[in-house]
Amino acid sequence: MRRRLIVMLKEPRPGRVKTRLGRDIGMTAAAWWFRHQTSALLRRLDDPRWYLALAVAPDSEGLQSRVWPAHLPRLPQGPGTLGDRMARLLRNQPPGPVCIIGGDIPGITPAHVWRAFRALGDHEAVFGPAPDGGYWLVGLKRSNRVPPGLLRGVAWSTDQALAQSVDSLGGMRVARVDTLQDIDTLADLPRGKSART
Length: 197
Hints:
Layout: E1 4-10, H1 19-25, H2 27-45, E2 51-57, H3 59-64, E3 74-76, H4 82-91, E4 98-102, H5 110-119, E5 125-129, E6 135-140, H6 161-167, E7 174-176
Parallel strand pairs: 1-2, 1-4, 2-3, 5-7
Antiparallel strand pairs: 4-6, 5-6
């Protein structure tokens, strides 16, 4: 019943990752930012309290990539919407609590992740909200059956993503932990930080 933290990542190629940020600073700079941001994030979150794995896309390229640390296990994200891919990851792990995050949230620390896993002690699901109505973390205790409609019908990249994701859980007890900012545009980058820092 080991805790599992899965980080969803795309290969950091210009035009493939952080395209909204890329419209502000250029696609090459956005891909550079994402690569270095995720490298720092993975170093920070490689913690003995949970099993850390990467869910990569595109599947074949991500599984063979030299960009990500070789010691971290990789899973293919597979096809479908973001909700399809996250629901499949949540369903298909070995028994025990699972949390999923993205790679574009500079503020995540091990303490944030630990609070999410602790919240699953007396809740069936947990979310880490983002200020824009989305979220940076979703997790399930997985002590019962995963709802069949999990993360279906969610309008991704809108201010309704969190509310609709909670609705898809079919009445599970849901905890919310820290609100953290993801990076979509230049305005989201912390003050004093450029894409090169």
